[in-house]
Structure formats: C-alpha cells, structure tokens
Amino acid sequence: MVNPAEVDAVVLVGGMGTRLRPLTLSAPKPMLPTAGLPFLTHLLSRIADAGIEHVVMGTSYKAAVFESEFGDGSKLGLQIDYVVEDEPLGTGGGIANVVPKLRHDTAIVFNGDVLSGCDLGALLDSHATKDADVTMHLVRVGDPRAFGCVPTDSEGLVTAFLEKAQDPPTDQINAGCYVFKRPVIDRIPKGRAVSVEREVFPGLLSDGLRVCGYVDSTYWRDMGTPEDFVRGSADLVRGIAPSPALTHQRGEKLVHDGASVGPGALLIGGTVVGRGAEVAGGARLDGAVIFDGVTVGAGAVIERSIIGFGARIGPRALIRDGVIGDGADIGARCELLRGARVWPGITIPDGGIRFSTDV
Ligand code: GDD
Ligand code: MG
C-alpha cells in the first residue's frame, strides 16, 4: 500500500496545446467556471480526497491567476507550490521544471484539463504492487487519433507510446495521469522544451524501463475543446461525472444564487446559469453553460454552448454548439450554429445573422 501523504501531485497547466482553441473567453481555460467552480477545483479536490497533501502546479502562463484563486491550498486541505516556466517547456519540460519542489520518492502527474473518476488510491497501489517505474492511467475512447495511443501486453506492460497516431493500433489511450518513481523524473532533460509523450515515454520504453498500464473504465473526459467542455460541465451538473468539490443536488440544471429565471423557461441537459444572470420566460436552455451576468431574451434557444461573462442573447436568438465571448451582444433572432465563435464585446444587430443550408 502507498501512503498518499508521501506522494507529490504535479498538475500541468500551460503550453499552446495542440487541441486548445481560443475559446474567446477571458479567463484561462483551467479556471473557467465548470458547474460553478473553477475547473481545476474539481481536480484539486479529487487529489485532496485521495489523501495526497502536497501539490506542485507547473504552469507556463498566468500563474498569478491560479495563485490568487487557490493560494497556499489550505482551503482545499492541500499545500500548493507554484512553479512558472519562463517559456512553455512542454509536458516533459513542465514536469522536469518542478523537480526542486518535489518532497517525496513518488509523484503523480496530472494533465490539468482532464475530468476523471479514476480511483487514485488504486492507481498508486497498482504502481507499488507491480513495482513499476511509471504507471499510466489508460482509458478506451471512440477516436484514439486525438490522443496518445498506448498498447499493453497480456501482463499490462506498456509496449509502445504513439502520440496522435493517424492509424492507432488500439483504442486504448493515455488518460493524462502518470505515477513516476522519482529517479525517472530526474532523467528528464532540464532547461529545454521536452514532450513527455513524444520523447520521454518512447525513451523509457527503448531503455527497457518498467512502464505499466492501469486501465480504468470510470468517467473520463479531456476538456480541451468547447464541445468537451460543455459536455463535461453538463455531466458534473447531472452527477454523471464525479467531483468531491460539488455539494449541490445533482439534476438537469444548476441555477446559482442571484440568477433569475422567468416563467416558462426550460432548463435541461445539465444547464448551468451563473450568478446574476437573467433568463427570460420561454427561453430554452439545453446543456448550456451561462456564465455570470448573462442576459438571455424571451424565447431564445441555447444548446450545448458557452455564453461568456456579461454577454447578452437577444429574444428568439438560436445558439447551438457555439461559444459567445464575454460581453458580446447577440441581437434578436440571430442564428449561430455549428462551431460559431463570437469574440468578446462584439455586437451583432437584431436579425443580423442567420444560418441556412439553401444554396
Ligand atoms: N506547464 C506546462 N507547460 N503545461 C503544459 C505545457 C507546457 O509547455 N504544454 C501542455 N501543458 C499541459 C496542458 O495545459 C494540459 O493540461 C496538458 O499539459 C496536456 O496538454 P494538451 O495540450 O491538453 O494535450 P492533449 O490533450 O492534446 O494530449 C495530452 O493529453 C491526452 C489526454 O487528455 C497527451 O498527454 C495525450 O497523450 C493524452 O492522450
Ligand atoms: Mg488536453
């Protein structure tokens, strides 16, 4: 058995991220409100819940934003150290960069954009029982091409690591959480950009280190795209995704204090309505993420979309699979569908845009 109090947690946030797209929202993505809490709160509370006490947050940007939210970690029952890269060092470089802050012989590293239900205690125990140098949390997904494909043999030993392969041999992928024996971390080159996926893991395998897979089938989602973000948020609201940080009743909607919802408005699909937001009667919100201070006009329809802080959605507008930037003003009856992104502060007049498949 591993004593979680003798394990460092390392949380990676930063980089340019191949799959990160500008969300047209001002908050850094790891801090976007997700079921009412900054996204990273869900991960940090899961770390605390597992009995891990010390966290090092390795970031390449906006460290002050994280520090002002989480401080020394005591509110979550954690001790958090922050390490900032002068320029993005990649996932491997980010891990190497936190070495001076590590306290223990075992570290568990997390990609900071993943929502997961994996039992961290069981993962740590598997690592110890199998005497692994590295243990990787692995999951199965429908389309492995966007991830690191990780085949294993009959004993669960990792046989290859194929990042973003076009023709992956298995649907089993790297879930973005690894347990490392400390000396393995010390091997990662310092002071330059290093990819843990493209350089470190293939190197460990060719050097014959013992890299084990821990296959898990609990909830898992990378929140790196707006589509995944709205799905993950809805899953938290509905109780499909677990988070020890959430205390509210699970259900079809989460309406924050100070928000108002008019008569006949329909809120379903794990919709979140932020503080001070106003949703007029007859609006239909399905899987919508409505940040604080948003106004939604009568009869507007918002499906699987993010509406940024203080934006205004006019009466009978239709937003589906979109992201509306902070403070944007979408006129009445506008139609924004299928990946529409509106930059912060932009105004679209009433009836100013519609969507049509006619030629
Ligand atoms: N500190 C720091 N510095 N963190 C970084 C940097 C960097 O330069 N670059 C990326 N990160 C962080 C990101 O913020 C994210 O939390 C994590 O490292 C992974 O980066 P992504 O950009 O989200 O990568 P991905 O989603 O395309 O792929 C990774 O995650 C998949 C699982 O979600 C890979 O690890 C894949 O192998 C994996 O399947
Ligand atoms: Mg990611």
From TrEMBL:
Q: Where is the Mannose-1-phosphate guanyltransferase C-terminal domain?
A: 251-344
Q: Which InterPro entries match?
A: GMPPB_C, Mannose-1P_guanyltransferase, NTP_transferase_dom, Nucleotide-diphossugar_trans, Trimer_LpxA-like_sf
Q: Which Pfam families match?
A: GMPPB_C, NTP_transferase
The chain positions of domain Nucleotidyl transferase read 9-236
- Record-stated family: Belongs to the transferase hexapeptide repeat family.
Name of protein: Nucleoside-diphosphate-sugar pyrophosphorylase family protein
| Protein's organism | Mycolicibacterium chubuense (strain NBB4) (Mycobacterium chubuense)
